Amino acid sequence: MEDGLQEFRVLAEELSFTRSAALLGTTSSTVSRRIASLERRLGVPLFERTTRRVELTEAGRALRSRMTEIDALWRRTKSELGSPATPPPATVRVRTYPVKARVLIEEFARHLPDLSVVVDANNDVQGALDSVARGVAAAALHWDDAAAPRPGRPGLLTTVVADEPSWVAMHRGHRLSGAAVLRLADLADEDWILAPAGHPLRELEDRAFAAAGLRPREGHVAEDVSLVRSLLQTGRFVTLASATVPPNEELSVVPLADPPVRRIMLSVDPSALSPAQVAGVRRAVESFYLRTANCSDAYRRHRSGQR
């Protein structure tokens, strides 16, 4: 591949040198240098860069569109050239955000007993989707802000698993833990645990707070689930959390009115699996999500009320 095109492909999706470098396993300066080299060879700027944002230029949008067409053509070609006699794969890799891996693996084993599934879970939400687009993984369970979803990837089969509200988590001893429902404005004086800047969850948080006309008071920045739980146990902080999080003797999860919503999606590379395996993956993920949702009585009632 032409030097710099892989960096362009990722940066055009992420619009962040920091996130792109993390996805590519390199440094921001290396990504910047290779993009600059590609721009010099093409003779046009591909990105507009300021201290606050990165945007595609008209030439950048044209190059991204052409590369998208090439990706789709390559996938169609692989599918057309594939021999019907070729046996389906015995092992596949599935990328996802941190979830209940044991439950997910159990559902894959139940619906696809002849398929060995390797679950790779981390907080790199868009990287999970990118890994399927690049052929590194066969499927990805990922999410996006339902209010501002990113465009899908050509050649992938993407289905919506659920539109999942984000509620507010706090210690059981918190003064608001017994509320039936809260508004973000009710939490204006609380210290918040926020995701790091540039993280997809932080983008969701920022949009939710802006819509509520609230500037949250930052108490701590964290993305590690164990650290967030430890901080909540001090009773000093609150945070946005998945409605599927089950409450316990120390943790309370209170519904929000007009909550930010995560769109949970499954994307599958149809050229990497047989049609039967694609169907099995979908059934496994749907069963997994149902089991996860039922861990929270409040969320189960919420979903029943939506039907």
Topology:
Elements: H1 5-14, H2 17-24, H3 28-42, E1 47-49, E2 54-56, H4 58-81, E3 91-96, H5 101-111, E4 116-121, H6 125-133, E5 139-145, E6 157-171, E7 191-194, H7 200-211, E8 217-221, H8 225-232, E9 237-242, E10 251-254, E11 261-268, H9 275-293, H10 297-306
Give the gist of this structure.
The chain has helices spanning 5-14, 17-24, 28-42, 58-81, 101-111, 125-133, 200-211, 225-232, 275-293, 297-306; strands spanning 47-49, 54-56, 91-96, 116-121, 139-145, 157-171, 191-194, 217-221, 237-242, 251-254, 261-268.
Topology-level CATH name of the largest domain: D-Maltodextrin-Binding Protein, domain 2
User: What ranges have pLDDT less than 50 throughout 5 or more consecutive residues?
Assistant: none
Q: How many separate domains make up the residues? A: 2
Average pLDDT, all residues = 85
User: How many H/I helical runs?
Assistant: 10
Q: What is the CA–CA distance across the termini?
A: 49 Å
What percentage of the residues does DSSP assign to strands (E)?
A: 15-25%
- Report the CATH architecture of the largest domain: 3-Layer(aba) Sandwich
CATH top level assignment of the largest domain:
Alpha Beta
Structural class: alpha/beta
Gyration radius from CA atoms, angstroms: 21 Å
Helix content: 40-55%
The major beta sheet can be summarized as: 9 strands, mixed
Shape: globular
**Strand segment count:** 11
- Helix and strand string, N-terminal first? HHHEEHEHEHEEEHEHEEEHH
